[in-house]
Amino acid sequence: MRICTLRAVGDRDGSTTSSAAAPPTACGSVPSRAPALQLCLYVLMFSVWGSSFFFTSLALRSFNGFTVPVLRMLLAMLVLGAIVRIRGLRLPRNPVIWMHLAFLGALNISVPYILLTLAQLHVHSSLASVLSATTPLFAFLFSWLLMRTERFNPMRALGLLVAFAGIAALYGFQPQTGGSFNAWALVIVVSSAMFAAGNVYTRRFLNAVHPFVIAFLQIGLGAFYLMVSGLLTGTLQIGTPSLISVLAILELGIAGSALTYLLFFHFIRLWGSTAASLNTYFQPMVGITLGVLVLGERVSATGWLSLATVLCGVVIFGIGSFLSLRRRPAAMAAPRHTSI
């Protein structure tokens, strides 16, 4: 999923409010318990996102790879639509913005979620969680190549090299289906690149739209594409699912999509987009723990080495991004409103 890093926060009519317009906040005006509360919410956010691969595996026990993302996005759309309605946010009227949102619904929702879910029929959830953590690396590369808004530093360059070396080493990984290489692992990397492209596209063309509206409409349009294609191809099937699969779908739609979007944009407003995006580097720990300890996934020694290499590269890249962020404190300026 999917991170949409925005540089401004929209007001109720869909226009943007710059950080300079935010009222100043005195250091002593935040209650002493607020930092602990925000930390707990942050841990909740990356824990829920990191467990999405675990719950997807549970959902796939009863639903096929096309039905899971359809139900997930429909639930998320309903929750986010209710939030948009309650907050009185207006939908955009500009047809150009709707065109961008329509494209984003395919690029950032329907296509990558279908690929990611189908891949989990063939790949361990622990492997999927690590490979999906490469999204910030692709986002950086796309921003650097297309928008020139990011810069290399030695740590970022080293992280990229190590991470992609680990992905290349997956050719020696022995997955659960046997064989020397599982092409579905590469499909997960492709989905991560698509999520990253969606992030960059959002920053470029939808920076003036309220983030909650973007989340609601891109998920809603993505769900529409998925549902129509599922009905036309006959792949949308419900059947008689088990209780655990139904609960997994509810978790994925309500918590794993809607709640995490709300929390993520909350932290964008509180800390800035770059700092909020650092949660991606913690998600694999949750995915690996649940996959190995709960699902009993077994990974070969070569596979563990490959995963560790990818994860090390992601962490090194994250450290480089953090160092870059510290050198540019002004880039983190954001309205310090703590309400969601």
First-residue to last-residue Cα separation: 20 Å
- Enumerate the strands of the largest sheet in spatial order, edge to edge or round the barrel: 1-2
Q: How many strands appear in the DSSP assignment? A: 2
Reported for the largest beta sheet, the result is: 2 strands, antiparallel
Proportion of strand residues: under 5%
Number of helices: 13
Shape: globular
Q: List the domain count as a whole number.
A: 1
Averaging pLDDT over every residue, what do you get? Answer: 80
Using only CA atoms, what is the Rg? 20 Å
Helix content: 55-70%
Q: Structural class, please?
A: mainly alpha
H/E element order: EEHHHHHHHHHHHHH
Give the topology.
Layout: E1 9-10, E2 16-17, H1 34-50, H2 52-59, H3 67-86, H4 95-119, H5 125-132, H6 135-147, H7 154-169, H8 183-205, H9 211-233, H10 243-271, H11 273-277, H12 283-293, H13 301-327
